[in-house]
Amino acid sequence: MSVAIHRPDDQSADAPADALDRARTAAAADPDGYWRDHGRCVDWIVPYREVKDTSFDAADFRIRWFADGQLNVSANCLDRHLATRGDQVAIVWEGDEPGETLRVTYRDLHERVCRFANVLKAQGVAKGDRVTLYLPMIVEAAVAMLACARIGAVHSVVFGGFSPDSLAGRIRDCGSRIVITADEGCRGGKRIPLKANVDAALANCPDVASVLVVRRTGGDVAMTAGRDLWYDEAMAQAAPDCTPELMNAEDPLFILYTSGSTGSPKGVLHTTGGYLVWATKTFRDVFDYRDGEVFWCTADVGWVTGHSYVVYGPLASGATTVMFDGVPNYPDHGRFWETIDRLGVNIFYTAPTAIRALMREGDDWVKRSSRASLRLLGSVGEPINPEAWRWYHDVAGDGRCPIVDTWWQTETGGIMIAPSPHATDAKPGSATKPLPGVQPQLVDAEGQVLEGATEGNLVIADSWPGQMRTVWGDHERFVQTYFTTYPGKYFTGDGARRDADGDYWITGRVDDVINVSGHRMGTAEVESALVAHAKVSEAAVVGMPHDVKGQGIYAYVTLNADTAPSDELRDELRRWVRKEIGPIAVPDALQFAPGLPKTRSGKIMRRILRKIAEGDTSSLGDTSTLADPSVVDALVRDRVG
Ligand code: 6R9
Q1: How far is the CA of 202 from the centre of ligand 1 (A)?
Q2: Residue 572 CA to chain centroid, in angstroms?
Q3: Binding-site residue positions for ATP
Q4: Ligand 1 center to residue 515 CA distance, Å?
Q5: pLDDT tens string 205-252
């Protein structure tokens, strides 16, 4: 089960692991003391005296860290490095085409951020205002995030793959009156009409008064007079300095929408002090970042991984971070490895879905590169199956780079469970141990805490600094979603196994969230998109195993009585979901179902639908409680796959 990792250059392999164990013990014994010390991994303008002030109990619920301290995130990511590393590269941008590369130093980034902060101010953006970003993976995305942080505005980054409707919903929910976008994005040689999508979204967002447009491709786009401005023209007129706003530790830093098991996506709110401490400390601890190294996290800034490990963690640590605006298979399947050689990447952090997709294309694509610069590999977003782990380790990492399989969530702000980067043995598929300050527990359905080697629902028993603070505009939903299933504990929505060594193996979501290529999708969201179509009367969506994506989306659709099923209609419904939500929500399988299996009280029995989607129709369990057990036979007969 465990794999020895050969690390010829490492003479001190045991000591750091011991240190990590000691830190874990210290943080558990005295959280206040531990974080009093480690909160100093970032620069405070006004040092904190208070440290931990948290309770998950309903009567006394609060999550506050370092609450009387003051700081500025952009000053931490920029100003504090100017004296020591102003001329060091902060961001290496790699475009969609190989070698389309740009290097931005800390000094240059600082000036750009100051200018853009002034642009935002000139547009009337003030502390506490929300700013929506709908951008490709370009340097301007990091500039805009940091500029918001500089003036105390709250950014909400919306992934460029979301549809105009999804974008509009997110703009309205947080009430932003300004959108930052680009003319077009480029991905895998194709253009993405970002500005046109914004125009379509804004038809339903009457409060948006200004749109700043970055010229990425130079493509022809419509500009609305009085509302739309070119980014470069605004930047040229802006002053190159801007004093960072003094922010309280608990002031909001950003909102990021994520899917849950019910309802529309939630605006996860992270605050300034605790989030920055968590992103920074986990970046340093998990990746063991060493001065001068090049760190490449392939995530898009539209996801939390891009926030914490493309932008905030690396920049607060004075690292050189790669921003990649392309895809793993363009122009060919060697793109990652060729880019690693060309940019001299030392630490590479990607998702299992990409690893599986590349593994399928064979080892030759990898072996054309040397990957000599690589020292450490990371995985994030979904469980990594042992086969993909071994390929990542043996082929991509030439058997000499440890893998850190990092479990965390949008809600947790940063990595929570991960192996030590110094581990000399590894368990393919296990995220292993909690980081210092993280207190995972496994509980059964009744909330009983399970001890020893066991399997159960993963909860976190106490607060950590990087924890989300609320759902934007709906604190009740925050408490309800995360703290009522198992009162007094944060429920992750994941299941996990713990082995005899105390190592954790995340088994996946136990709620109605599907993890498609490492992207979270709520079954309820896809269902409501489907039933919004005029010909659909009912829909139920479940996850199904998928070789590359991890999970795929399986939709059961009941049509209106007067509508006949057809392949054309199936395609039409797929296009409909793409338009309503975006390409990541398009069902991989869509089955027309004359009826859905329901209990007599009208509840859809998803357990049965999951089994059918998995192709496991021999063990459907007890169907006698169904209102009409015969619907199951029809579903099994018409299964698509
Ligand atoms: C960072 C991120 C969170 C969900 C999470 C879990 C899954 C993430 C994982 C993992 C197994 C890992 N997940 N990392 N499962 N092993 N190393 O992905 O955030 O988009 O919010 O997704 O992803 O199911 O609950 P987010």
Answers
A1: 32
A2: 30
A3: 381-383, 405-410, 494, 509, 520
A4: 8
A5: 999 999 999 999 999 999 999 999 999 999 999 999 999 999 999 999
Distance, in Å, from the CA atom of 379 to the CA atom of 354, rounded to the nearest integer, reads 10
pLDDT digits (tens, 9 = 90+) for 515-561: 999 899 999 899 999 999 999 999 999 999 999 999 999 999 999 98
The DSSP string of 498-525 is: E-TTS-EEEEEESSSEEEETTEEEEHHH
Which helix or strand (DSSP H or E) is residue 123 part of?
none
Q: What angle do CA 177, 178, 181 make, to 5 degrees?
A: 150
Contact 584 CB / ligand 1 (< 6 Å): no
SS3 state of residue 460:
strand
Minimum CA distance residue for ligand 1 atom 11: 383
How much distance in Å is there from the Cα of 382 to the middle of ligand 1? 5
C-alpha to C-alpha distance for 185 and 193, rounded to whole angstroms: 7
Separation CA 462–CA 268 (nearest Å): 19
Relative to the CA of 513, which ligand 1 atom is closest?
A: 24
Cβ contact 624:579 at 8 Å: no
Of ligand 1's listed atoms, the one at least distance from the Cα of 508 is: 24
Q: How far apart are CA 559 and CA 562, in angstroms?
A: 8
Question: Using CA atoms, how far apart are residues 196 and 182, in angstroms rounded to an integer?
Answer: 10
Position 18 scores a pLDDT of 80
pLDDT band (50, 70, 90) for residue 598: confident
Q: What is the pLDDT of residues 464-497, one digit of tens each?
A: 999 999 999 999 999 999 999 999 999 999 999 9
Nearest to residue 177, comparing CAs of 154, 146, 210?
A: 210
pLDDT reported for residue 2:
52
Q: For residue 536, how far is the Cα from the chain centroid?
A: 32
Phi (first) and psi of residue 133, to 5 degrees = -110, 130
Per-residue HEC secondary structure of 550-602 comes to EEEEEEEEEECCCCCCCHHHHHHHHHHHHHHCCHHHCCCEEEECCCCCEECCC
What pTM was estimated for this model as a whole? 0.94
> Is the preceding peptide bond at 331 cis, omega within 30 degrees of 0?
yes
H/E element holding 127?
none
Q: How confident is the model at residue 641 (pLDDT cuts 50, 70, 90)?
A: confident
Query: Cα(408) to centroid of ligand 1, in Å?
Result: 5
Task: From the CA of 406, give the closest atom in ligand 1.
Answer: 17
Averaged pLDDT of the chain: 94
ipTM of the prediction: 0.99
Query: Hey, what are 540's tokens?
Result: 């139920």
Sign of CA dihedral 81, 83, 84, 90: positive
Annotated binding site for Mg(2+): 531, 533, 536
What is the Cα–Cα distance from 387 to 395, expressed in whole angstroms?
Answer: 12
Residue 563 confidence (pLDDT): 94
Between CA 638 and CA 250 the distance in angstroms is 53
Measured by CA distance, the residue closest to atom 15 of ligand 1 is: 382
- Contact indicator for 547, 603 with CB cutoff of 8 Å: no
Q: What SS3 class is residue 453?
A: coil
The angle subtended at Cα 429 by Cα 426 and Cα 434, nearest 5°, is: 75
- Atom 16 (ligand 1) nearest CA: 383
